[in-house]
From TrEMBL:
Its EC number is 2.7.1.33. It comes from the Bacteria. Catalyzes the phosphorylation of pantothenate (Pan), the first step in CoA biosynthesis. Substrate binds at G109, G110, D111, R112, T186. Gene3D superfamilies: 3.30.420.40. The active site is at D111 (proton acceptor). It catalyses: (R)-pantothenate + ATP = (R)-4'-phosphopantothenate + ADP + H(+). HAMAP family: Pantothen_kinase_3. ATP binds at D6, V7, G8, N9, T10, N11, I12, V13, T134. This is Type III pantothenate kinase.
Amino acid sequence: MLLAIDVGNTNIVLGLYDGIGDDARLVRDWRMRTDARMTADELALTMRGLLGEHADKVTGISTLSTVPAVLRELRVMLGRYYSSVPRVLVEPGVRTGVPLLVDNPKEVGGDRVVNTLAAHHLHSTTCVVVDFGTSTNIDVISAKGEFLGGVFAPGIEISVDALAARAAQLRKVELVRPRSVIGKNTVECLQSGIVYGFAGQVDGLVRRIVAELKQTDSGPVTVIATGGLAPLVVAESATIEHHVPDLTLLGLRLVFERNTR
């Protein structure tokens, strides 16, 4: 079984795949909180606890980290606890097959690269991937699978945290859809601004991106949502066509297969 590990700024997502190629299926996935102070031993212990009965069935590992402090401990953990297991860490030099058509390819995070690979694997069209994480990342992929660039915007949770911290009478609220756009109390007003406001932001950016792509005769464009907070916005968005929660895990599986065959 292949263990895919996606270390993000807020959460670490684990996915366990059984099989290879087109026959591979995602057996289970887990989500744990990212802690930059976590040691290699703590990381291994927590992961083993989540894997449970599957812990001794891992025959390969594919991973990435956008958090430098955790990346260091992740390397130690892989060497200490999984030294005999084939493993791929997404970093410069790893074969992804994704051309990075940007000013400085070294700036492109591993998560954006594997999302590009996964989106191109799923769809043969030009793609726009909206990743709802710590930040809201919108990445653009050509029909040839090239990474063309994208957009960064403040993420939903950090925006809510900033608002609660700076406004004396406002507070953090449950991130759910309110009963109406026009809020009847403080909580609903905040929820409306969060849910419909971020949906409008994404739709506005995606429409501008699609309009710009049409100038280059890009053909049809597929818009995909992923990330932990995507379910909050997907239903309210007019431009998102597909919700693929395991897009990054799929990309990690594809990278592993490219580098171990």
